[in-house]
Amino acid sequence: MVLDPPLAHPLIGRLTVIGVGLIGSSILRAARARGLAGTLVAFDGSEAVRARAEALDIADLVAATPAQAVADADIVILCVPVGAMGAVAQAIAPHVKAGAIISDVGSVKGAVVSALRAHLPANVHIVPGHPVAGTEYSGPDAGFATLFKNRWSILTPPEGTDPAAVATLSGLWTAMGANVETMTPEHHDLVLAITSHVPHLIAYNIVGTAADLEAVTQSEVIKYSAGGFRDFTRIAASDPTMWRDVFLNNREAVIEVLGRFTEDLIALQRAIRWAEGDKLFELFTRTRAIRRSIIEIGQETAAPDFGRSHD
Amino acid sequence: MVLDPPLAHPLIGRLTVIGVGLIGSSILRAARARGLAGTLVAFDGSEAVRARAEALDIADLVAATPAQAVADADIVILCVPVGAMGAVAQAIAPHVKAGAIISDVGSVKGAVVSALRAHLPANVHIVPGHPVAGTEYSGPDAGFATLFKNRWSILTPPEGTDPAAVATLSGLWTAMGANVETMTPEHHDLVLAITSHVPHLIAYNIVGTAADLEAVTQSEVIKYSAGGFRDFTRIAASDPTMWRDVFLNNREAVIEVLGRFTEDLIALQRAIRWAEGDKLFELFTRTRAIRRSIIEIGQETAAPDFGRSHD
Ligand SMILES: NC(=O)c1ccc[n+]([C@@H]2O[C@H](COP(=O)([O-])OP(=O)(O)OC[C@H]3O[C@@H](n4cnc5c(N)ncnc54)[C@H](OP(=O)(O)O)[C@@H]3O)[C@@H](O)[C@H]2O)c1
Ligand SMILES: NC(=O)c1ccc[n+]([C@@H]2O[C@H](COP(=O)([O-])OP(=O)(O)OC[C@H]3O[C@@H](n4cnc5c(N)ncnc54)[C@H](OP(=O)(O)O)[C@@H]3O)[C@@H](O)[C@H]2O)c1
Predict the structure, then answer these.
(1) Domain boundary among B156, B183, B210
(2) A80 lines ligand 1 (CB under 6 A)
(3) CA A189: distance to chain centroid?
(4) Which of A146, A250, A294, B262 lies most in the core, judged by the most C-beta atoms within 10 Å?
(5) Total domain count for chain A?
(6) Which residues constitute the domain of residue B48?
(7) Do A238 and B306 touch (CB under 8 A)?
(8) pLDDT in tens, A53-107
(9) B76 phi and psi angles, rounded to 5 deg
(10) What's the confidence (pLDDT) of residue A309?
(11) For an interface test with A, which of B196, B297, B300 has the most A Cβ atoms less than 10 Å from its Cβ?
């Protein structure tokens, strides 16, 4: 299964991506592969990334400034860390075209909606988004055109947003292979706290705990990591800036879900201490069914060990 | 990279595997592929598994009873859940050959050493072991010959064990592609608590917490699982009997490591509450280095997303 062939006519005139990292460069690659925009424009705050974007020939134009980047753009998608969204919105605000759609891909939505609204003019359509797709790598070389294929992209348009603008953005994501769902920013932030943010925090934490144990050397932790630990290190290798920003900007939902997690974990610890085998067995059986469902709806591979090579 | 070609002469005469699941059937397959034993014998407590072992032609003889299975065996490897080791040792004890090597693959070593010693006669060599390799699947169909390739197999011979017996078993694992290390059962149980047991417990726990949240539906958890959650469900889909037995038999080390994990997690939660971005950033940077080391020593793939298919 690959992306569908290019469209006969582009969906939109000029598409600008700001922040050419894993997500931004994947959007550019998918849009190019499917011919979704008349002109593809890229901009990044880092000169090195702009040079790399040029070298990769990832857009029709790699702009030199935010102003040049958004001039005349029909859709602008901000693909920078959540904490940088406000500054980027401020930088582009004087230059965006009236009627343009301004979107983003930030992993937190409530805080980003506030940041965009605070800076952008009233004559643009703000349609925040979040593709639930990624890898542990970042930067312009990490992206690929099929990243969004069969993944969900969540849009969180504020009440009163023009339905036509939502439909256009939704069409863009669909054309990149994604399924689209809309919900409120608040609900998004709670759902993602459990399906993404707290899992990342736990992964970072167990890797940190392992590194700090005195009785077990770090080289032992590394050597015997195939017992399960290494799965966690993938997630705990994700970009530190991105994830710091996620936790700082989704504090309430993360702390709420974390409270539940800890409560459950302490109950489990107690069951181990008192040798309550049936309680353990019951939980361990229940959790299997959830993975089965994830595989059934095509959000996970059924291949053993994620399909890791065993040769 | 595949297994090396078969040996010209088998390393041992008669090799018996008791418990033809993921690990047992992988040993049989690897031993067959490399010609490691003159005769391969299999036994399982389940009639269905014995029939399946016959159908798969996984051994030269699928024994009908424990007595028949171990008669004349030079090496016997117990590949049953940790909680069943004692019963199996008891069942084979009257029938093992003097001088035979009795080993196992249990994920906990202290408790298994005690169980084996309690039942086996003094005229056999007890050399407990644990291959740090596996997948989330179980049963005779789940095994494969390359499972142990480039993984570590830990032996925990009690003090005073005949070095020749340890060397023979070590040679067997090496011939199946594994690297061999020896340590005390106590140290093994602590190392594995951090590299395997607690990670599994945390994975089971987060999946349970997610399933129980009222504000987020289970279908949302499943739909948006590609944000990180699905990684945890792989581990949380492992065999409930096996894992119940692991936690019941490695209580002390698991509870000790869990205490450290929770302490660290609460400190992290506090850093989020007080918006201490630098603390988060520092941890998230430190953890990356550990994954890099795991990849460097060949215990993990460098492919993004474990090499999951993105097409
Ligand atoms: N990674 C994922 O799995 C994933 C999944 C879904 C959504 N997201 C979201 O997508 C966004 C981007 O993540 P990513 O993984 O693509 O990150 P990334 O690979 O690190 O790329 C981000 C890019 O934005 C640039 N940038 C930072 N601040 C900027 C600014 N003020 N103006 C212009 N460019 C700036 C960065 O340049 P420098 O290198 O100079 O910092 C970098 O090139 C984040 O909001 C994240 O929450 C990520
Ligand atoms: N899975 C892993 O990743 C992994 C990794 C390293 C070590 N280990 C260890 O390896 C051992 C086996 O695990 P596995 O994953 O191979 O399990 P598995 O696939 O479930 O296989 C275990 C087999 O043992 C049989 N069995 C249970 N009790 C028995 C008894 N009293 N007598 C004879 N056969 C009996 C089971 O039959 P029934 O189906 O009738 O119960 C089953 O066929 C465990 O001690 C585990 O801790 C596992």
Answers:
(1) B183
(2) yes
(3) 12
(4) A250
(5) 2
(6) 12-183
(7) no
(8) 999 999 999 999 999 999 999 999 999 999 999 999 999 999 999 999 999 999 9
(9) -120, 125
(10) 87
(11) B300
